[in-house]
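Minutes, structural biology subgroup

Action item carried over from last meeting: produce the structure token record for 3 beta-hydroxysteroid dehydrogenase/delta 5-->4-isomerase (Rhodoferax lithotrophicus). EB confirmed the sequence was re-checked against the source entry. Recorded below for completeness.
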Amino acid sequence: MNNKERVLITGASGFIGTNLVDALERQNYIICNFDKAKPNKKNHDKFWFQGNLLKITDIEKAFHDFKPSVVIHLAARTDTLSDKLDDYIDNTLGSENLINCLKKTEGLNRIIITSTQYVYKSEKKPLPTRDDEYMHYTQYGQSKVITEQLTREANLNCCWTIVRPANIWGPWHLRYPIELWKIIDKGLYIHPCNSPVLRTYGYVNNVVHQIVKIIQADVTKVNRQTYYLGDIEIDSYVWLNSISRNLTGKSLRRVPSILFTIPAFIGDLLRKVGIPSPLYTARFKNMIENYPAPTAKTVSEFGVANSNLDENVRETIHWIKTDGKDLFEYWKNKSV
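Output recorded by EB:
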């Protein structure tokens, strides 16, 4: 692989994609961002090909015009708000359309298909024993199971790799700054557990580093393989407390989880009558349960850009207060 590879990224206007474009541009790759949405970062407009994965003709035109040698499939609906699989058609039919076009495209060297940690979640058996062992969490997770199955059954004639991001955070994440980080900054977050809750997070620049290393790796290491993307698992309090200390200069308060039971139940009732609530049973359960991902193999083989949590948090805070500030009313109006 060399830096003259032509890399087409689906969904590069989004969170991970924006950071990935920056990383590939620094290494002089030739880039095409296939996305129906305009890039969030102004200087990425030059890479943008406006296209929709639900329209096969859009994909065919992009492949014909750009002639990619590497395709990284990031485009997806990634929230977990719907309990209807049909609402994730971009992930299912969109991926099917892309894969059908990949099968007919000559000159491809590498393909990366992005899935999610949510294709498997089980309290009885925390980690799968095979790459094709599934127990999806949410309909978003099910949509990505379908994406993986389509990939494995496609008989693609070049090197392909499936990647499963864990809980990714960092610059250009458009939800955390107006939800979690805002709550922490206001001093309203209380951690509902005194014992460790093991989770896997991934600083976005570490994840992007891993993706780049995968497209540069020897084929024998990555062909038909599945890698979880992210950092090594940690206690969720450590991650959240780093955010708090670097935002406010204060450590987070911790209380016994039982004190959250009644407020979570009240939140359920409010949501049933259409009143939004920041705390409800499903969210509370998510806050206190272990959900690690097996990223140790990925970190061992491909490393990370920076393993220092505090430095990565400060880099994200700097982005929120500079380039990202105008994207969020709260941070735009807050004095730096």
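Discussion: The longest helix spans residues 89-104.
Next step: EB to file the record with the rest of the batch.
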